[in-house]
Amino acid sequence: PARCHLMRLYMEANRPDSARRLWEKLPQDDPSVWIRYSAVLVEFVSWKILEEDGSTQATAEEQLATAVRSNVFCAYYLAFSSTFETVMDHTEEIEETHEGRPLEEAIEYCNSEQMGAWYGTEGALEWLRSEVSKAANGKSSILSARDLEWRSDLERIREQDDVESHGSAGDTETSNGGRIKTSDDDDDDDDDEEDD
Predict the structure, then answer these.
(1) CB-based contacts of 117: which residues, under 8 Å, 6+ apart?
(2) pLDDT per residue over 165-177, tens digit each?
């Protein structure tokens, strides 16, 4: 989407005031990682590095809470980026993700030029990691352990993927999440028997 591309350009060009004006015009519940996590970084720099008038720890924390609630996967990826970099393969292949795909959007963001901004901002990743850790241990004033829940989001993504990949093939899901075998599945079994 255009707003995400524009945010990327503002961040790459080191234009935080333009970035701030952009996210302030958007709905507070805009889930884009490009918008939400850029806002976190800009507010962190404004408060912690530049010590600008009107910028406070509370403002940065508010942006972080909004970002985490909109895409928890990105929070984990940023907070533990060195671990993800060693265990994730083919991340560079994820480009131009569609909205509504939070995991892919987080992977794309965390493997883009935006990571250079995070790494290059003294204390930013450490602060984010600290806030995520405090929330996980029930010691955060801005986030709860529930805000860090990712399993249900991942399950929703899996279900969405199943519907997209199998829904048109005639598969039927049972009420408990199981799958009823279709005639196409039977054909696959027959092929296996012929190979024996």
Answers:
(1) 11, 41
(2) 776 544 444 333 4
